[in-house]
Amino acid sequence: MQNNNKSLLWNAVFVLVLVAIASLVYLSGKRINYNWNWDRVVPYIATNAASAVTAPEDGNIVVGENNQLVLENLSGEVVVDLSAYDTVDVYEGDLIFEGDVLASVEEWRKGPILDGVIVTVKISLWSLAIALALGLVIGLMRISSNPALKKLSIVYIEIIRGTPLLVQIFIVYFFIGTVLDLERFTAGVVALSVFTAAYVAEIVRSGIQSIPRGQMEAARSLGMNYPKAMIYVILPQAFKQTLPPLAGQFINLIKDSSLVSVISITDLTKAGREVVSGSFAPFEVWFTVAALYLVLTGGLSWAIQLLEKKLSASD
């Protein structure tokens, strides 16, 4: 009974803290005399507003074979069949010039913010996969008995961790990207992967070194060579140990992906910046952008927690 009362008390404290934070945000908005217009943001996420269908070239409006209006070009070829559209704005016999509005159609389509979310997810997934593979290799080099491999990994880790990600993005895009003719998206993925891999390498190194040496010795005594012992015995155990710090690093990767906007990749952050200039609703847009980043990082955190539970249950 006493434990239940304590639980209720601390849950009440939790609710009060959330209410206090919400009240602080509300009062701050009142104090700066800001008019909230959340409806301005919605069309930039997704909208079903009517979109115009324009003529791709000059021509005439005639009745086609199915007794529906079509646009024929000057050569008599059917360019646009207007039977598929909800509202037709032209009539039989009209002379049409390129760019004229022919019809309008209502359908759900993505807004720039949702497009930015998709780009952020793509660049994060690619960077995560490459960083994990590269970080594993660098981490194994870090604990290698080969002096050249070990020193190369140390130099790599110290240089990458000791320089800002923004500078690395500029170097990859404007220097390496120019030499190798990399696209913006590829350059962004490379920069994020190289940056994150340095941290993953140290996480992998610490995870491997946390496994008792007896595990390796036992594997070798069973006839396994070093690579097999590392793959089948050491790395699976180290992976369980390193999952929480890896999760934190991957969450940072999603947030760090916002920096690729400096090389004109229209990710979530750049999309938000563009929407602010067109919607005149800065606070609503940036709160929405922050919420979407929270959804992405929260989803990743939830997935990793499920993986942790599954791995712990298999022990």
Automatic annotation (TrEMBL):
Gene3D superfamilies: MetI-like. This is ABC transmembrane type-1 domain-containing protein. Residues 117-304 form the ABC transmembrane type-1 domain. The lineage of its organism: Bacteria, Pseudomonadati, Pseudomonadota, Gammaproteobacteria, Vibrionales. The chain crosses the membrane at residues 7-27, 123-143, 155-176, 182-201, 285-307. It is found in: Cell inner membrane; Cell membrane. Part of the binding-protein-dependent transport system for glutamine; probably responsible for the translocation of the substrate across the membrane. SUPFAM superfamilies: MetI-like (SSF161098). Belongs to the binding-protein-dependent transport system permease family. HisMQ subfamily. The keyword Iron does not apply. It holds the Pfam family BPD_transp_1. NCBIfam families: HEQRo_perm_3TM (TIGR01726). PANTHER family: GLUTAMINE TRANSPORT SYSTEM PERMEASE PROTEIN GLNP, MEMBRANE COMPONENT OF AMINO ACID ABC TRANSPORTER. It is a multi-pass membrane protein. Keywords: Amino-acid transport, Cell membrane, Membrane, Transmembrane, Transmembrane helix, Transport.
